[in-house]
Structure formats: C-alpha cells, structure tokens
Specification:
The complex is a heterodimer of chains A (86) and B (386).
Chain A lengths: L3 E6 L2 H18 L7 E6 L17 E3 L2 E3 L4 H14 L1
Parallel strand pairs in A: 1-2
Antiparallel strand pairs in A: 1-3, 3-4
Chain B lengths: L1 E9 L9 E8 L4 E9 L3 H20 L4 H11 L11 E9 L3 E7 L5 E4 L2 E2 L5 E4 L7 E8 L5 E5 L1 H4 L13 H15 L5 H14 L10 E9 L3 E6 L8 H10 L3 E5 L1 H11 L3 E3 L12 E3 L2 E5 L2 H13 L7 H10 L3 E6 L19 H14 L4 E6 L1
Parallel strand pairs in B: 12-13, 12-17, 13-16, 17-18
Antiparallel strand pairs in B: 1-11, 2-3, 3-4, 4-5, 5-9, 6-7, 6-10, 8-9, 10-11, 14-15, 15-16
Classes of the chains: A alpha+beta (86), B alpha+beta (386).
Chain lengths: 86, 386
C-alpha cells in the first residue's frame, strides 16, 4: 500500500501563520498511522502567491488536495478521509 | 591576497575598562588596511582614554595619506609625559598594508611584532628614529613584502610580561615564550583564523598569570595574509522570471561556498539545476524554519525570517546559536569575501496585514547585514540586485 504524503509548507508566510507548529503536533497525533503516512516539510508550496488563495496561509498538501488556512483539525480530517478511501 | 584581521583583549583584573585600544580600517576599495594597537599608561578609564586617542588619531593620520613614519613621529613627539612616572602617556604599534602584500609597520614602546612565515619567525630589518624632544622615545620603522600564509602578530606588554615574578616565568612570558607557544600551536592549527589565534594568545598569556588574574591589560592583534575564502548567498527570485535560468546557472558555477536563503529561491534553483531539496533532521531549529540540503550547496534556509534573525545575532555578537540563523552566521563568518545575490521579486503574501509578525523588506535586511559584516567583522561584502 502506498503511503499518503502530507507536505507542510514551511515557507515564510505559512510558517508565521502557524505552519511551523503543525508538523510536530500532527506527527504525534498520527502515531497510529505512522506506517501509512509520510509527513514532510516543504520549502514553499507557492500557494500563497496566487490571487485566489492570498491571505489563506498556512497551506498543507495532502496528496493532491491543497488545504488552505490549515490547522491540525483540517489536516487530520483530510488524512483520515484518504486512509478510509484506500 | 586577503588580510584576515582581528584583535582579542582581556582587561586588567579588577578594572572595568580596557587600557589598550585597537582600531582597524579598510579603505581604497578594501585594498588597504590600517590598524593600530595602543597601550595607555596605567589601566582603567584613564588608560582607555589615552590609548583610544592615540590609536584613533594615528589611524586617521595614516588614512589621510600622511606617511606612516611622519604620522607616528607626530604622535610620538606630541604625547605628553606622565608627571608621576616620567614616561610617555601611551605606546603604540601601527600597520599600513595592502592586499598586494606591501606592509609598513611603526612601533613605539610596544613589544616588537612577530612575523611568522612557514611557521618560523622571520627577523626583519628596521630603521630607528629617536624623538628630537624626548631622547628615550624611539620609533622603529619596518617595510617588507608579505607572502600568502604570513601572519603578523602584535601584542601589548600584557602578553610578554604575563606571569612576571612567578617561579615559572620570573621575567614574564616574554617574546621568546610567545614565539615558542605560537610555533607549537600553529603546527597543530596551520589554517587558524586571526580571530581564533588572537583569542588563543591572550588566553595563553592569562594562563601563566598568578591565579589567572591579568596583571595588566592583555591584547593581541593578528593579521593573516591568505587566499580569500569566497562565498555567495542567493536570496529571493529575480525580478524578471525569464532570467531565472541564467542566475541559477551562475550560482551553480560559483567557485566558493554557496548558500540559499528562501523557499521560493531554493525551489527555483532546484528546478533549474535539477537538484533535489532534501529535508534534514535538525534538532535545534528553535522558532525558525529548519534548514535543508542540496547537492553542491553548503546551506539552504528559509529567507527573510532567517536573514532578519541572523542580522540580530551579528549585531548582538551572539555567535553560538545552532538554529538556521546561527548556521547562516557561522557560514558568513567563515568567509572573507561575501556576495549577496538579491532577487528583487516581491512576495505579496509577506505584506499581508493579517500576518502576526512584521516581515522586513529583504533589501533592508541585507543592507544592514552588509554594514555589520564590514564594520564589525571586517568582511568584504558586495550586493547585486537581480
């Protein structure tokens, strides 16, 4: 089974908007799925610079789904949805 | 050649001001370096004022293209005599050198400087001039050609007289003691920087003092002639996107050490040079985004937050941090000639009023960093806006 990849943007805007705190908490919360997901930092997903997504940092990418104004709850829900579909 | 210069000092035990004063200036588009070490009579505030005035005036005279001999002679002839001790108010050593290796040195009253070449002391001829007003004041003038790898070491008498009266050093550490110590140390650390060597010399002198209490102000200044260590920092994408490839290639071909500061910049270089950005586990990242790695690049960090913090560390002389900004500071301080390639493309999102912190403008931070690196850390810094 392929792992679900979660990319957390740690570009400047996302980092100051709270992206910097997502990874450690999310990693701790998803311990039981550790074998099925991969959580990585991304330098910059570039999402904050698009006019339609401006002002919605931080961004997290769960596979091909971009989550704006991301927080633990939203990202966790997106991961669970993916895992159920697998 | 690049001239790496630094000075380290310890105050006389119990004093709250340095009685020795060191000043250095680079001029003539960084090709010329002038430095003066002066030792004020006595210690504490009085000595500090005397040495500060002597060093500052002498450095300014030399900088104004008065010949070093004439400049030193004016100072030597003008320094008043202490009414109690009947000796000159301050002694001094001054050096005027260029990065082609030509060196002039003058000394009055300070211990003779040391020229180390291939880890041996090289004795030098000098001319001596006696002050017409004060027959006990003698100026030594040296003129020689430095070679790559040479080191010039200036000390105040706090070094040569360290430990005086002790069983081990009844006459003090002396120049002989300093030479022996320098030779064995440089044999172990042949590439040591001026900053590290100067620090080592004063600590060595302090170690021979009774109870490790400095009996006098201890100062050591080192000049190290070496091939410059060059580095390039690429931060921010170019204003014109069509130039991305060109700038990335020139970054890739750069011969020295390389750093990238910025997520978008790192992505662009990764894309253009086809080199992967690899996350690396970093245990002490503090409240800054962690560093990453890329093949052929020495350091990859986030941009503006890291640069701003690094400038703060440089300003406060906090050089021990292990987060991304601390690693950037280390990278900068291990270089002699630093070039910043600053992309002019603005990231709109950085100016969103909803951001919880104020994000500085990249140009402003880089300008501040340049000034700090030049004034405080004696680096040669250039900025190119792209």
């Amino acid at each position: 089974m392929e792992k679900v990849t979660v990319k957390i943007c740690e570009g400047t805007t996302c980092f100051v908007m709270g992206g910097g705190t997502i990874k450690p908490v999310l990693t701790a919360l998803t311990q039981r799925y550790a074998a099925r997901i991969e959580i990585v930092s991304a330098r910059c997903l570039g999402a904050c610079n698009h006019a339609d997504s401006f002002s919605k940092a931080p961004y997290v990418l769960v596979e091909d789904e971009i989550i704006s104004a991301a927080d633990i709850e939203k990202v966790y829900a997106a991961i669970e949805k993916r895992l159920k579909n697998d | 050649m690049f001239i790496d210069i630094d000075c380290a000092q310890i105050k006389k035990f119990g004093q709250n001001a340095f009685g020795d004063y060191f000043i250095s200036k680079r001029s003539d588009n960084q090709k010329r370096l002038i430095a003066v070490l002066s030792d004020g009579l006595g210690s504490g505030i009085k000595a500090n004022i005397l040495s500060c005035m002597t060093a500052t005036m002498l450095a300014r005279f030399i900088e104004e293209d008065i010949s070093i001999r004439k400049a030193a002679q004016i100072i030597m002839d003008s320094l008043p005599i202490c009414q109690i001790r009947k000796i000159s108010y301050a002694t001094f050593s001054a050096v005027d050198c260029r990065n082609d290796g030509s060196v002039w040195v003058v000394e009055e009253g300070n211990p003779a400087f040391v020229l180390m070449r291939k880890n041996e002391e090289l004795p030098l001829a000098y001319k001596e001039f006696t002050s017409p007003q004060y027959p006990d004041r003698h100026l030594r003038l040296y003129r020689f050609q430095a070679e790559v790898g040479d080191r010039i070491i200036f000390c105040s008498d706090g070094v040569t007289q360290a430990g005086i009266g002790t069983r081990e050093y009844p006459l003090g550490f002396q120049r002989r003691g300093l030479l022996t110590a320098l030779k064995s140390h440089l044999e172990l650390y042949p590439k040591e920087s001026s900053s590290e060597l100067a620090k080592w010399v004063i600590e060595k002198a302090l170690s021979v003092e009774p109870e490790q209490h400095a009996g006098d102000d201890i100062s050591c200044s080192v000049l190290y002639f070496r091939n410059p260590r060059k580095s390039l920092i690429f931060t921010g994408p170019p204003y014109n996107k069509s130039k991305d490839r060109e700038y990335c290639l020139s970054f890739g071909f750069f011969g020295g050490k390389k750093a990238i500061c910025g997520g978008t910049t790192a992505n662009m270089i990764s894309r253009e040079l086809r080199r992967e950005i690899v996350n690396i586990p970093q245990t002490e990242c503090g409240d800054l985004p962690p560093v990453a790695a890329m093949d052929g690049v020495d350091l990859v960090t986030e941009g503006i937050l890291t640069l701003t913090r690094a400038a703060e560390y440089l300003e406060r002389e906090e050089l021990q941090h292990k987060d991304a900004a601390g690693l950037l500071v280390k990278f900068l301080l291990e270089s002699d000639i630093i070039e910043f390639m600053v992309g002019a493309m603005l990231n709109q999102a950085h100016y969103d009023p909803a951001l919880p912190v104020e994000i500085e403008v990249r140009r402003t931070v880089i300008k501040k960093m340049k000034k700090l690196l030049e004034d405080k850390y004696f680096k040669q810094v250039t900025i190119s806006y792209i």
